[in-house]
Structure formats: C-alpha cells, structure tokens
C-alpha cells in the first residue's frame, strides 16, 4: 500500500525545462479536463501541443475520453496549459505519478489549477447536466492511507503537514457564482462536496447511501490527489464537477451508470463548462512577477 516510489526534484525540473524549451508559452493557469471535457482545450489560441508519450516522465492516459495531450495556449489573453486527459489511480499509476504534472506546472510558474471532472450525483438537487462548484472534498483513499504526499516530504514544494481546510479558493468560487449569473446559467450551478473513491467500479447502493449520509454531493474517481498536491505547493485551486448521472441509491431503481453515458453528458455540456471556465480564468487576478523553474518553489 505504501509505495516506495520516489520522484526527485530534478525529475520534475527536467520535464519543466523540456517543455519550456519547446514552447514560448509561460502558463499562469493549468486546466485539467475531466472525462468527456477534453474540448475545453479547443478554446485556446496560438496552441503548442505535445502528446504525453513524448514528454519525459509523463505517464500515459489509458481511459477512453482522455486524449493524452498537453496543450499550451492563450485563453482571452491568459497563458494556460491544458491537460486533455488526466491520470487515475485505478489505471495502475501510483498517486505520485497521477500528480506528476502538477509539480511540473508549479516549476513552470503556474499559480492556479482549474480541475474539472465528471461525477455522479448523490444530492437530490443535483441532476445530470448540472455543474457543481467544488467547495470541499472527502479524500476516501487518503483517509485509508493512500495519499500522494506519503513518503519523504520535499520541503522545496511545501510543508510536511499542509492544511486542507481552504483548498478550494473562496474568491474564485464567488467569482464563478457571479459569472454564472452573467452567463445566465445560475440555475444549473450549485456549490457542493466532492468525494473521491478509488474506482474503477461504480458504487454499490450501500456505498452510495453511506456517501450520501456522509454529506457527499458528488462522487468520482479523480481530482482529489491533484488538489492535494497543488495545495501543498501553494497553488490556488478552482474545481468543477459536471454531473453526468445520478448515483443509484435505491434497490427499486433499475438505472445503471456506464462510462459511455458519462462521456455523452460531457460532450453535451462541454460548451457550457468551457464558457464558465474561460470567464473565470479571464477575470481572476494573476501575479505576473513569477520566477520559473529553478526558483519557482
Ligand atoms: O474524474 P474524471 O476523470 O472526469 O472521470 C470520471 O468518469 C470516469 C467514470 O465514467 C472516472 O474516471 C471518473 O473519475
Ligand atoms: N465513482 C463514480 N465516478 C463517476 N464518474 C462519473 N459518474 C460517476 C459515478 O457515478 N461514480
């Protein structure tokens, strides 16, 4: 359970330098596209793009709906890097590997992480097609001892015992709620609590009922390790769940979730998610005096 895998500061640095020597972009914001949401990268202009297979140290995406491409570009004048495809623990990657890109981004000068995901709703008020702004999370693998920060702490990135009580930036959450009014999508959007489970199977009814009683609004198999590592190294985080299905909580219910259905809702709503993310990024405050690679952490 406790992996002995280590990734050195030099390994992250080499990848950051490899990327920075191949693109002129110096991203301030990184975006991770959830299942079916890869088209978020389409809104970037002046793109430079790399397949994960050519980037030193990057794991490979194996999940349908996660293209495996890193795209640099401009979003309304903001320099961004967008992961078309994320890494999940259930693919067999260690948690350290699933979060490898986050520390690379930190070394490249990224200050803000925007995470998106597809998730199942446990809350009666969240329906397929709705968007949940993540207010907080429950790290179920983390509570059971699976955490990307396990092992020796790299003090250059952050402290041994990082606080997680305010990891989803309050200012960005209120900005997003403001933006939803202007985009006239406020009726689709609510704040809520996301829980990560290990997957790859979807929940049993007993598990769904347990999560519901614990106060979970939406459940998925990603995001939390990325947020933990980003928070540890001092990044600001904004998170969105696209609700793709209702999690079955009743033995009388014959509905059955599947990944194709998840991807389909992603495709149907990707434009709305794209608009929301674009507006939030274009209006967020950015500190432009950032050192990159060697002195970024
Ligand atoms: O969290 P993302 O990557 O959006 O994907 C979600 O959708 C997949 C299941 O359909 C799982 O990977 C789950 O985590
Ligand atoms: N665990 C989990 N992940 C999801 N991703 C999209 N929908 C779901 C779901 O219902 N459960």
TrEMBL record:
GO molecular function, one term: guanosine phosphorylase activity
Pfam families found in the cross-reference section: PNP_UDP_1
Record keyword Glycosyltransferase present: yes
GO BP term (any one): purine ribonucleoside salvage
EC annotation from Swiss-Prot or TrEMBL: 2.4.2.1
Protein residues bound to a purine D-ribonucleoside: 203, 245
Biological role: The purine nucleoside phosphorylases catalyze the phosphorolytic breakdown of the N-glycosidic bond in the beta-(deoxy)ribonucleoside molecules, with the formation of the corresponding free purine bases and pentose-1-phosphate. Catalyzes the phosphorolytic breakdown of the N-glycosidic bond in the beta-(deoxy)ribonucleoside molecules, with the formation of the corresponding free purine bases and pentose-1-phosphate. Preferentially acts on 6-oxopurine nucleosides including inosine and guanosine.
Record PANTHER family: METHYLTHIOADENOSINE/PURINE NUCLEOSIDE PHOSPHORYLASE (PTHR11904), PURINE NUCLEOSIDE PHOSPHORYLASE (PTHR11904:SF13)
Family the entry assigns: Belongs to the PNP/MTAP phosphorylase family.
Name of this chain's protein: Purine nucleoside phosphorylase
């Amino acid at each position: 359970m406790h992996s002995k895998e280590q990734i050195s500061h030099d390994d992250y640095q080499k990848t950051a330098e490899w990327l920075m020597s191949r693109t002129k972009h110096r991203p301030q914001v990184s975006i991770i596209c959830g299942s079916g949401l890869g088209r978020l990268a389409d809104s970037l202009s002046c793109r430079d793009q790399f397949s994960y297979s050519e980037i030193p140290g990057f794991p490979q995406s194996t999940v349908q709906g996660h293209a495996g491409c890193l795209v640099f570009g401009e979003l309304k004048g903001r320099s961004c890097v967008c992961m078309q495809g994320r890494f999940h623990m259930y693919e067999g990657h260690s948690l350290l590997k699933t979060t490898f890109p986050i520390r690379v981004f930190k070394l490249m000068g990224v200050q803000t992480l925007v995470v998106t995901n597809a998730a199942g709703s446990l809350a009666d008020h969240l329906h397929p097609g709705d968007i949940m702004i993540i207010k907080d999370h429950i790290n179920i693998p983390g509570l059971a001892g699976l955490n990307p920060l396990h092992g020796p702490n790299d003090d250059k990135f952050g402290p041994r015992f990082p606080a997680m009580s305010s990891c989803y930036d309050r200012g960005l959450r209120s900005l997003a709620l403001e933006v939803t009014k202007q985009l006239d999508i406020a009726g689709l959007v609510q704040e809520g609590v996301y829980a990560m489970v290990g997957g790859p199977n979807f929940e049993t009814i007993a598990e769904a009922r347990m999560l519901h009683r614990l106060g979970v609004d939406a459940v998925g198999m990603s995001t939390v390790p990325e947020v933990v590592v980003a928070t540890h190294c001092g990044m600001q985080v904004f998170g969105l769940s696209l609700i793709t299905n209702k999690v079955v909580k009743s033995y009388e219910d014959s509905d059955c979730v599947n990944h194709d259905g998840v991807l389909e809702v992603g495709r149907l709503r990707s434009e709305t998610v794209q608009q929301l993310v674009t507006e939030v990024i274009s209006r967020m405050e950015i500190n432009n005096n950032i050192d990159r690679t060697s002195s970024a952490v």
